[in-house]
Fold these 2 entries.
Entry 1:
Amino acid sequence: MYDGECLIIKSRTDDLLIAEDFNKQEYAVKEDVFSNVYVKGLELNGSFRRSEVLYFEYGNEELSKLIDSLFL
């Protein structure tokens, strides 16, 4: 969330995993693809289409200030 985005992937055991790092390829007429996804330092195999994940973006500076203040 520090970078204004969050990627959540569902594991084979139905756990929700929050990615700490990933690459996103955006396309105009087909689904975006996420690759090089890391969770707790482990790289997940393969790539994930936008319909297979939860992806959030935000640009609220006031919310960013609130989140930052929680960790001071």
Note: The CA atoms of residues 10 and 16 lie 5 Å apart.
Entry 2:
Amino acid sequence: MGAKSWWSQTDSRLLEAALGLAVLLVGIFGVLLPALGVAGLTDPTDTREVEAETAARVPGTVTDAVAGHGMSLSGNHRVDLVFADPDLGQRLLLALPEIVGSLLLLLILALLLKMARTLCGGDVFVPMNARRLSIMGIAVLVQAVLAPILPALTTEILVSGTPLAEQIPFSATFTGDYVLLAFLILALGEVFRRGTKLRADTEGLV
């Protein structure tokens, strides 16, 4: 008599529902609302947290009224770059890092949802899931690069040619967490790929 699986159809349905809800929320709050803000249909993003050299030279103080071209800085070590009335280009640059990050997250969640649906068939070890894991690993690796680079690049463009350009240095801090996670997912995808190939070869001998 075979051992009974601890994972039931109800568990699969709940997992699908949770992932579907996550896709919906990320789509609305991470992509749709920021895009509407860029278009001017809702309140746009008008603030970007940055590191300013002025604040670093005067620790513990508030950098206020350092303004130019409708922009101002306020805060101490980590300061807020505030736009009084951002135009279309500025709104796009302010929202771009969040939108791109959310799109990558949507891709990962959608792939996870498709993998979860294979649980209903009782077998996740299929070639398609190996490919999905590879795509997820690449998406996480791309996010590891874009997460620090996009805000830095867009901030550089936003302040270029303004009095604030000298106050805000180009700053991008990379961490190894996303890179490690990406390689773990890629390794898992390779395990899936080899496992499905081995099983296909074994079934061919029967």
Note: Confidence is low (pLDDT under 50) at residues 55-66.
